[in-house]
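In this section we walk through a basic example: taking a raw amino acid sequence and producing a predicted 3D structure, encoded as C-alpha cells. The instruction is simple. Fold the sequence below.
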Amino acid sequence: MPRIAYVNGRYVAHSDASVHIEDRGYQFADGVYEVCEVARGFIVDSVGHLDRLGRSLSELRIDWPVNRAVLVHVMREVIRRNRVHNGMVYLQVTRGVAPRDHVFPASGTRPALVVTAKRTDPVAAAKKAGAGLKVITVPENRWERVDIKTVGLLPNVLARQQAKEAGAQEAWFVDPDGTVKEGAATNAWIVTRDGVLVTRPADHGILRGITRATLFKVAEKLGLTVEERGFTVEEAKAAREAFITAATTVIMPIVAIDGQPVANGHPGSVALSLREAFFDVAEKIQA
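The resulting C-alpha cell sequence is shown next.
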C-alpha cells in the first residue's frame, strides 16, 4: 500500500509530496515540528505535543496553519490512510511560501503544514531495548533556544552521524563544565546507586520533552523518586543505570557511554520497568 501524506490541504501520495522551493522551512529552517507516538491504535501524549507545538509557534510568531481540532482530524486521517497501528505521526509547520528575504513575509502569508505517518515494529523496538543503546558525548554547539522545537537541526544531525561512525546510536551534548545537556533527539537520564532518577531541569538549555514529562507520572506510579538537577558525564558513567526518552524511542536503556560500560553493560531493571509501564500511564486518544 503506498504511503499518503498531507501537504497544505491535500492528501497526496508520499512519493509525490512536495513543497515550494521558496517555502521558508526549506530556505531558512523557519519552522517547527512535532512527533507523536502511535501505539496500539492510539496517539500518545497528543495534548502535550500540541501544547508544545503551540508554544513553539508562538515563540517564532508563526500562526497555527489550521485550528487545533482540525489538526487532530488531519493527524487521524493520515494515520488511517497509512494504516498505522504502531508507529509515528510527524507534523511540520513553516512560516509559508514567500520570496526569499530574511525578514518575515507580508501579513497574510499562510503557514505551510505537512503531516506524515509511518509504521514501526514494536517487536523490533522491544528487542532494541533489551540490548540497550550506546551513546557518545559531544561538546554543546547549538543555539541557545533549544527549548523551541525547530526544524533547524544541523548540529543534531552532525552529532548523530558522529555517533553512528563511533558505533553508537545517540550523542549527548555536554556543557564546558562537563554537565550533560540532552541527546541529539532525546532527553538524558541516569539512575543513581540508591535508585533515584535524575534528569536535567527543563527550564532552559534543553527541550522540555513530552515523554520526559510523562515519565514523572510513570515514576510516581512505580514509587520511584525523580530529582531534577544536572549531572556530569563522569556521574553518568558511574551510575547504576542510564537511559534516554523521546516519543520516537519511549524509554531506551543506555549500556555504554563513550565506550565505557554503564554498570554491568546491560539494560537496567528500572529503565525496563518504566518502559513497560509507560503506555498505561500516558495520555491517549484513539487514532
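Looking at the output, two observations stand out. The first strand starts at residue 4 and ends at 7. The radius of gyration is 19 Å. In the next section we compare this with other chains.
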